[in-house]
Amino acid sequence: DAGVIQSPRHEVTEMGQEVTLRCKPISGHNSLFWYRQTMMRGLELLIYFNNNVPIDDSGMPEDRFSAKMPNASFSTLKIQPSEPRDSAVYFCASSLHGAGETQYFGPGTRLLVL
Amino acid sequence: AQRVTQPEKLLSVFKGAPVELKCNYSYSGSPELFWYVQYSRQRLQLLLRHISRESIKGFTADLNKGETSFHLKKPFAQEEDSAMYYCALNNAGNMLTFGGGTRLMVKP
Q1: Statement: residue A28 has pLDDT above 80
Q2: Which of B96, B97, B102 to mutate to test the interface with A (most CBs of A within 10 A)?
Q3: Of the N and C termini of chain A, which has fewer Cβ atoms inside 10 Å?
């Protein structure tokens, strides 16, 4: 298994543009997590899915952020419109079931919004 | 609300010296605590969890409920231990809260 796959690995965009980040969890994992990492705030949980259903999105910063998981093998995190303060590394992680199980992280997407 | 605090952003030690990365938490329930590590150019990965009570790569961590701490320790640091270390707390809602992280630098 290649582990959690994220794309793109790097994204540079201009303020106001739509950004879509993608994640493929490990096959057989029921839980998927999106995190954002910044120097100022560290690693923050944005949203958590269990069996493709969003369980808690209280970490999503504002309405510009949205996440979907249309099936067990794919999830997207969308920012529309993007702003410079959204610049960060976005990680996707998956686990067998819930945060109590070991979470396996993807390589991250480094986003820069100019 | 739960919170995880790692008071040191950077910890620098010499090879062979003992190392302790501090982690304090606040949580009203029964905590489940983890240490995750990110080596240079590698993914964030689980190092150890308190319920396993195991030693991984020479590291141990003991949950001290009285002091609400889960410090990570190693008696003799190695250069390959240089990495970013995150303490994390799992609450009953199955959400992981991470501390701010501590960068460990082990000098030769």
Answers
A1: yes
A2: B96
A3: N
Query: In three state form, how does the secondary structure of chain B look?
Result: CCEEECCCCEEEEECCCCEEECCEEECCCCCEEEEEEECCCCCCEEEEEHHHCCCECCEEECCECCCCECCEEECCCCHHHCEEEEEEEECCCCCEEECCCEEEEEEC
- A100 interaction partners in chain B (CB closer than 8 Å): 32, 90, 94
Coil, strand, or helix at residue A68?
strand
Contact (CB<8Å) A106/B43: yes
A contacts of B100 (beta carbons < 8 Å): 42
Question: What was the pLDDT predicted at B92?
Answer: 67
Burial of B102 (0-12, 13-18, 19+ CB in 10 A): buried
Q: What is the pLDDT of residues A44-65, one digit of tens each?
A: 999 999 999 998 888 898 899 9
Most B CBs within 10 Å, among A60, A90, A103, A109, to test the B interface: A103
Asked if B89 and B2 count as a contact pair (C-beta separation under 8 A), the reply is yes
Q: In this structure, what DSSP letter does residue A18 have? A: -
Nearest to A103 among B96, B97, B99 (CB): B96
Kindly give the parts of chain B with pLDDT less than 50: none
